[in-house]
Design a protein that fits this description.
The structure is a homodimer of 246-residue chains. Chain A has 246 residues and is mainly α. Chain A has 2 domains: 75 residues, Arc Repressor Mutant, subunit A (Orthogonal Bundle); 109 residues, Tetracycline Repressor, domain 2 (Orthogonal Bundle), CATH 1.10.357. Helix content of chain A is 59%, strand content 0%. Chain A has 11 helices and no strands. The longest helix of chain A has 26 residues. The two termini of chain A are 40 Å apart. Chains A and B meet through helix 7, helix 8, helix 9, helix 10 and helix 11 of A and helix 7, helix 8, helix 9, helix 10 and helix 11 of B. The structure holds a DNA duplex (30 and 30 nucleotides).
Chain lengths: 246, 246
DNA sequence: ACGCAAAGCGTAGGCCATACGCAAACTGGT
DNA sequence: ACCAGTTTGCGTATGGCCTACGCTTTGCGT
């Protein structure tokens, strides 16, 4: 195991995996990586990813903008740190839980919570995850299928399926509520009603008419999420039964 | 039907839905909205979304940066136009195709193609779609389920499920190939092999060991996509059978 | 007490989006 | 042929952003 993960890789990775050299001498730090990352996450949570700038972050921390660069190689690096820290630890379950469906459901629901608390995560994900925080979630999801007869490739496929679904659902929810310029809840429906010409978009017009985009009469938005997730896991169940017979 | 869709809404929408006033007199335009949007799409395709700036776009079009603002209200507006134009028309099928699974599969595969040709689309989607281009795709997907006994809410849920899956798969593929600094195909696997400590990430370590992240020995990456899609559609099939019995 | 490593930060340069107003060019009417 | 009106193209300027570079400050180890 080399001391460095890679020379051309983001500096952040070497720090995240605990391969930063301990430093003894020198001025006592007033800033720390943890404080910076926590402040950046709070700023992004409160005012959105667009409002996160090095200058505003420094202002919030009471330091000069350039001071941040002593702890972070650049803005990209900072975002890697944020992506690692924000989700927190994944739900706990053993290596091969008896109830794969319950475990995976819990994983998905908690991940949805993470994305709703930190909507910027979805916008930020661009490279394959290589930090301990995200890999821990990935590992937990793979473990939830530990008791099934699926092979590793199929398990990974299932996990990606659920992951994509959760991300999409989170994006839908956050973009619908924080839509362009304080658009009210029903405004999207009203707009679609006007735009969905039945001649041009027959199915869409019928769907709007049926109230698909209106907020549910009863039952919260979580029920929609659970319903879609159940569809998805039904498919996984089919695959598991098929694998069990083979 | 009012002349304007909304006063606080992006200018782009009023243009997209053909409610811009025709202009007769005046200087003959050297620029046009179509040329601008086409150039912007080409620029984003070739150099990525980050390279798309008004200045670089103007340079490519041989005009001054500020000239663009005669045709586009701002960069956000331009991106709305790009989102509308880039996907092109969705696949054609009737209002209630006999083979929902085939139709929806075709829709998903073609949409994946769109996302792979224009990777920036996935990064750009933030608000619910309100332009004709995206609504046409949505309508097509809803039509693919026209022959099933699902109600409109369930159809919409299924379409979102497939949409999220396609987006996620596209993001995975594009971010894996164009990863940080020309990372080779196998580099991610190598890195994971090193980082996935079996004590800390037991399932992940086993998955890496099993070669899940290695490129397939035979069969292209499309087979992975089709396999995941099949899982997903199995779940939809279960829902359809259930609805048929009710 | 002293030197030096590390932290904090001031300056400056190069990008970026875009508000504003003026000059150029074309058309229709006289 | 000319002018008025209209629309396009664009020069200038402002304020934001990220960050390279080097200086000042600080406190530990000796």
């Amino acid at each position: 195991m080399p001391d460095d993960i890679g020379d051309e890789l983001p500096h952040a990775l070497n720090v995240l995996w605990g391969r930063a050299k301990p430093k003894g001498r020198g001025r006592t730090p007033a800033l720390s990586l943890e404080r910076i990352v926590a402040a950046a996450i709070a700023l992004a949570d409160e005012e959105g990813l667009a409002a996160l700038s090095m200058a505003r972050l420094a202002e919030r921390l009471g330091c000069a903008p350039m001071s941040l660069y002593r702890h972070v190689a650049g803005k990209d690096d900072l975002q890697l740190f944020m992506l690692d820290a924000a989700p927190g630890p994944p739900p706990e379950f053993g290596t091969a839980p008896a109830d794969w469906r319950g475990s995976l459901t819990r994983w998905a629901v908690e991940l949805l919570g993470v994305y709703l608390r930190h909507p910027w995560i979805v916008q930020l994900v661009s490279a394959p995850p290589m930090d301990p925080g995200q890999l821990a979630w990935l590992d937990a999801a793979l473990r939830s299928l530990g008791g099934t007869p699926l092979d590793w490739r199929a398990r990974f496929s299932v996990v990606m399926l659920v992951l994509h679904y959760v991300r999409g659902a989170a994006q839908l929810r956050t973009s619908a509520t924080a839509a362009p310029e304080e658009m009210a809840d029903g405004a999207y429906t009203a707009l679609l009603t006007e735009l969905a010409d039945p001649g041009r978009f027959p199915a869409l017009a019928r769907a709007v008419e049926a109230g698909v985009f209106a907020p549910h009469p009863e039952a919260g938005p979580d029920d929609d999420f659970r319903a879609g997730l159940d569809h998805l896991l039904d498919g996984v169940g089919v695959a598991i039964e098929r694998a069990a017979r083979a």
